[in-house]
Write a structure and sequence with these properties.
Length: about 170
């Protein structure tokens, strides 16, 4: 609901009739983790090949162990594949009001707490950190906390999603 009490009565009526974007009461809402994702050597190799990563620690278990890792290391952007279903979960939440047809990806960042390696079982908890409107568009900031099966943090991701306004 918009705070329009400070406006003259005629403007209050007009502003109140404007379409309301994403429901701001969702700020702070957390979505529980889904099924754990098992990181495998094969998936790491596929991803590394797709992005042109030739680092030996992503392909060779011996090189990874020599570098101090327990197994091959996933490239830093590998964990994006764990977050792809998040947008679907948000789009399928009818109370949020996200129009998937108007959605574009605005920004993405990762803070790695440790490398993801083959053998990890990872879960993702998603939290809506912010919702705001600017220039006729709605912005949604989503945090993803990726943890291993012991609950230890592996990575924190942030994405900014933009829901384009009708005139955008």
């Amino acid at each position: 609901m918009r705070d329009v009490a400070y406006l003259p009565v005629t403007l209050r009526v007009w502003v109140s009739s404007l379409p309301v974007g994403l429901d701001q009461s969702f700020i702070g809402r957390a979505y529980p983790p889904g099924t754990p994702y098992r990181v495998s050597r094969e998936k790491i190799a596929e991803f590394a090949k797709a992005i042109g990563d030739t680092s030996p620690v992503s392909h060779d278990p011996e090189a990874a162990r020599a570098a101090g890792h327990r197994d091959v290391v996933a490239p830093p952007t590998f964990l994006i594949i764990l977050t792809l279903g998040i947008v679907d979960a948000l789009a399928n939440d009818p109370d949020l009001g996200l129009d998937y047809g108007r959605l574009v990806h605005g920004d993405q960042s990762f803070t790695h707490h440790r490398p993801a390696t083959a053998g990890d079982h990872l879960t993702v908890t998603t939290t809506i950190e912010d919702i705001f409107a600017r220039a006729g568009n709605d912005f949604l900031t989503v945090r993803t906390d990726i943890a291993d099966d012991a609950g230890e943090p592996v990575c924190t991701g942030r994405a900014q999603l933009v829901v384009r306004g009708e005139d955008a």
